[in-house]
UniProtKB/TrEMBL annotation, chains A, B:
Protein name: LacI family gluconate utilization system Gnt-I transcriptional repressor
UniProt keyword list: DNA-binding, Transcription, Transcription regulation
Alphabetized InterPro entries for the sequence: Cro/C1-type_HTH, HTH_LacI, LacI/GalR-like_sensor, Lambda_DNA-bd_dom_sf, Peripla_BP_I
Organism: Chelatococcus caeni
Residue ranges of domain HTH cro/C1-type in the record: 19-62
Alphabetized CDD domains for the sequence: HTH_LacI, PBP1_GntR
PANTHER family: LACI-RELATED TRANSCRIPTIONAL REPRESSOR, TRANSCRIPTIONAL REGULATOR
Taxon lineage: Bacteria, Pseudomonadati, Pseudomonadota, Alphaproteobacteria, Hyphomicrobiales
Listed Pfam families: LacI, Peripla_BP_3
SUPFAM superfamilies registered for this protein in UniProt: lambda repressor-like DNA-binding domains, Periplasmic binding protein-like I
Domain named HTH lacI-type: residues: 18-72
Length: 344, 344
DNA sequence: TTGAAAGCGCTAACAT
DNA sequence: ATGTTAGCGCTTTCAA
């Protein structure tokens, strides 16, 4: 007998994974019943349910969602592409979005595009390989192959942080052109005669900047000097920007519109280092209304975008489509708001 | 004929997904050959390879990794658990880690624990459901069920940001106790007679704080007042902390050790708002050496931890084990470094 | 170099 | 309330 066993189990030294079948045998039911106990417990009698739960506890069974996803064609995965995970503007959006979709049982597969369309396209290809149930994209500019892949996948897509009449599927955000114009109007209403732009290399930031400058030029400003950086915003770059504006572009006084609060904070610090008074000598307007904006010296005037709302709206747009609900509006504009504090 | 077709395809209105089989038929080969063309192109003749590639382009075939993962028992997925995605300390670690593992074809499934062990445990359960090939955890404190699940999964695990003699599998980080002591030594060497702590509610931060205070008390300091916050660090809380220290704890002068650069920055701002000179009245030491630390006013003295190195080491520890390489050391200490600038 | 067959662990019909 | 059967779209043997 013993010998027989030895012969039987040969090289069988790989630990068999615990599957539904394992649990089923222990509970004295069939494998499907275990599946039901997990997915539709009401359809299983209390007695069997208890036996199955016990068997699960005893075996330490962990459901295999990759098998489940293959069989059901639903992965319960949402792919999300953001430009940069270290940029709080995007990471906090992900935080809210993630929370909202998790409540419906979805997990997030997140990747960074580094603000590159090519990278984004490659990542979309990689991500679709996991058969996500939906996709979140940042911005409305995407390569054609990217759009095609997404369209071909036939899954809900939401583009965030911007609005367009022609989204891939749905989009939720606000108009960056309008934001730039609104800040220009604010600047004029407050009697500034000179203005400058400081901007990071974000396509949307550039559109705000351009709209801002255009509106001011049209209103009679002689020129709107600017300092633009490739890549991300930082306090260091904000300091550098003011230095350049003052030292190289002869910017003496006026208001500076920054494409992010981080840059604005840098401008504030550099102004202080140079003994420039804010807002008397240089006024500063940020963008984003990050948590620290209310606590700089002086408190920062900025443009608020409700990122929590953005995340929730993006999630509910996707969840609605995943639940087969008809969504009337393809485009949701959550707007923005100028928060006046003390720097302008 | 036409009629026949109609009858044949009944209700067949669901678009058949493009599978390897689809590609195979178009290329005139069997399905396995397509699989080989994708995974081991050298084992396929150039001619067939070309036909297959053409067929893939024509059909827009997107490989199904969920099927692949089920069959191969390798998901090419790494699960990562961090306390908070909006904390740059963790998000930048993820950025580096992600880059390193992506180079080997792995994707990241990331979730936030919100500094909670219970949440972490729940997330581990959820994540294991996706059958990741490896797991990254933040810190060395985990619930017992969490450890069990991970051990049971039989996959490589790396714990980051801390070191211990008894990791679940491997760990890479540095000693927070040693960091606290080192800062205390720095404080004494520089002749400070009074010190305080400002800390966020991070278990590791608390250990640094305690080691710092203990070392100073042992060295004869009368007391080390402290302000601790539950939850994350912020500039606002840094400002509030200095206010409390001065207004409520009669902290008149000395050095303040902050558990993060963000808190330190807040202290700096509040000091300025109160007309306190830095470092003459209050000296400040941060933690993390974030990019902005060199650009505050004055530039911030802080403790540098090489997060890029941490991410890379964590990745290579995991990748080595995934490749079946024997890893001699279970624990990697990447150390830290006090960066002296102008605030202390 | 290529193919046939057998699963991976689950869910989706369809019985009973 | 429970079970049977048939896949999901791949990879892994093993043959040819």
């Amino acid at each position: 007998m013993l010998k027989n066993q030895r012969v039987t189990d040969k090289e069988d030294r790989s630990p068999r994974p615990v599957t539904m079948e394992t649990v089923a045998r222990l509970a004295g039911v069939s494998q499907v019943t275990v599946s039901r106990a997990l997915n539709e417990p009401d359809k299983v009698s209390p007695a069997t349910l208890a036996r199955i739960r016990h068997a699960i506890a005893v075996t330490g069974y962990v459901p295999n969602l990759v098998a489940g996803a293959l069989a059901s064609k639903r992965s319960k995965l949402i792919a999300a592409l953001i430009p940069s995970i270290t940029n709080i503007v995007y990471s906090s959006l992900m935080q809210h979005f993630s929370q909202a979709v998790r409540a419906s049982g979805y997990q997030l597969l997140m990747s960074e595009t580094g603000f590159s369309q090519d990278e984004e396209q490659e990542l979309v290809a990689k991500l679709l390989t996991r058969r996500p149930d939906a996709v979140l994209l940042t911005g409305i500019r995407h390569s054609d192959p990217c759009r095609h892949m997404l369209l071909g996948a036939g899954i809900p897509v939401v583009e965030v942080w911007d609005v367009t009449e022609t989204p891939i599927d749905t989009c939720v955000g606000f108009s960056h052109t309008e934001a730039g114009k609104a800040v220009a109007a604010f600047v004029r209403e407050n009697g500034y005669r000179r203005a400058a732009n400081v901007s990071a290399g974000d396509e949307r930031a550039l559109r705000r900047k351009d709209a801002f400058a255009r509106a001011l030029i049209e209103a009679g400003f002689a020129s709107v000097p600017e300092v633009c950086f490739e890549g991300g915003a930082s306090i260091e770059r904000g300091r550098l920007a003011l230095a350049r504006l003052v030292d190289e572009q002869a910017f003496r006084d006026g208001v500076i519109f920054c494409s992010s609060d981080l840059l604005a904070h840098g401008v504030l610090i550099e102004a202080q280092a140079r003994g420039l008074r804010v807002p008397e000598d240089v006024a500063v307007i940020g963008f984003g209304d990050q948590v620290f904006a209310a606590h700089t010296l002086p408190p920062l005037t900025t443009v608020r975008v409700d990122r929590a709302l953005l995340g929730e709206r993006a999630a509910s747009a996707l969840l609605a489509r995943l639940n087969g609900v008809e969504v009337p509006e393809k485009t949701i504009d959550i707007g923005f708001e100028i928060v006046r504090r003390a720097t302008a």
